[in-house]
Write a structure and sequence with these properties.
Radius of gyration: 20 Å
Helix content: 55-70%
Number of strands: 2
CATH architecture: Orthogonal Bundle
Order of helices and strands: HHEEHH
Strand content: 5-15%
CATH class: Mainly Alpha
CATH topology: Multidrug-efflux Transporter Regulator, Chain: A, Domain 2
Structural class: mainly alpha
Number of domains: 1
Strand order of the largest sheet: 1-2
Distance between the termini: 50 Å
Length: 120
């Protein structure tokens, strides 16, 4: 995830629903042509496109762009390395959620089993 120490020079993300490419450029410290290039390189970065093929980014897109920027510019990853790192974090998040869910289900099943044993 993006650490706050790497984020000190970037402005806070306003509470808007959609951001233009110019706004995202200012918020993330990355030029617009770089954002368009990253869209091709990172499959998770998919801004909405409306009339005239204009891009509209959402908050999670801005956060992802800041993560990509941090990986490439501050941590020294290549584009392939950053792509793998982001894919690995998603897999780790999914794995942690699955483990947490399975532990919760096991606990609930044990409680149900205890209730049945107490009744018999």
């Amino acid at each position: 995830m993006l650490e706050t120490s790497n984020n000190k020079e970037l402005p806070a993300i306003p509470g808007k629903r959609y951001f233009t490419i110019g706004e995202v450029s200012d918020l993330c410290g990355v030029k617009a042509h770089v954002l368009r290039y990253w869209e091709q390189e990172f499959p998770d970065l998919k801004p909405m496109k409306r009339r005239g093929n204009r891009r509209y980014y959402q908050r999670q897109d801005v956060i992802l762009i800041r993560q990509i920027r941090s990986l490439l510019h501050e941590q020294g990853y290549t584009i392939n390395g950053a792509r793998q790192k982001l894919a690995g974090e998603e897999a780790e998040d999914d794995s942690m959620q699955a483990n947490q869910l399975s532990r919760q289900i096991i606990t609930e099943l044990e409680n149900i089993l205890k209730i049945f044993k107490d009744k018999t």
